[in-house]
Design goal:
The protein is an all-alpha fold and 201 residues long. Helices cover 84% and strands 0% of the residues. It has helices spanning 2-11, 13-28, 33-55, 57-61, 68-96, 103-120, 123-126, 132-157, 159-166, 170-198. α6 (103-120) packs parallel to α10 (170-198).
């Protein structure tokens, strides 16, 4: 399984030269650090999926001595590995250019990435090749632009829930959010595995 994760890095080595300028663009544009961490985390996993979509890599992967469960596990575990690496590189870049950021920014960026990955990873095995990348890009843009407005709208309407959340301690809130995100990610992992097990290549 480690070799599958390593494969993604090898395939994306040319894209990695674009990664740094890509992140620097957001830094120079004074984008919110949480957004910069989110974009950085998305870069490698979704580039890998886009590459595999074009080359139909899944046919090759299924001819190798890996089970379908291991292939999907490498996707989900790899996404976490790439997220950690991307956050490390982005943190160094922000520090180098004297841009302030906090652990909250890292937590928000990584949490949003895991939630976005949980929603979109199953789509790569549901939708037909040729449509997936476009759907993911549109979904990301819609969520980035409409997401905050939806949260504010729900907060205004669901006052009982909002009051309950506000009264929670910071530790309880962060712990609850972390557990919820992990549960969503694991559920997505299970759904994607089930879809992939039944998919014909």
């Amino acid at each position: 399984m480690f070799n599958l994760i390593r494969r993604d890095i090898i395939l994306q080595k040319r894209q990695l030269f674009i990664f740094i300028p890509f992140i620097l663009f957001f830094i120079f544009m004074d984008a919110h650090p949480a957004l910069t961490f989110l974009i950085a985390s998305i870069f490698i996993p979704f580039n890998t999926y886009a590459y595999d979509e074009k080359t139909e890599t899944n046919i090759l992967l299924n001819s190798l001595p890996y089970t379908r469960t291991e292939i999907i596990a490498s996707r989900y575990l790899g996404a976490i590995v790439y997220m950690v690496l991307a956050i490390g590189v982005t943190s160094l870049a922000l520090f180098a250019f004297n841009k302030t950021f906090s652990m909250n920014d890292i937590a928000i960026g990584s949490s949003l990435f895991l939630l976005f990955a949980s929603v979109t990873f199953p789509l790569f095995y549901i939708l037909k090749p040729g449509y997936i990348t476009m759907v993911v890009i549109i979904s990301f843009l819609v969520l980035a632009s409409v997401g905050p407005a939806i949260v504010l709208f729900l907060a205004d309407r669901l006052t009982a829930i909002t009051d309950f959340i506000v009264n929670l301690s910071v530790t309880t809130l962060y712990t609850g959010a972390t557990i919820a995100i992990i549960i969503v990610y694991v559920i997505s992992w299970g759904i994607t595995t089930a879809i992939y097990q039944r998919k014909a290549f």
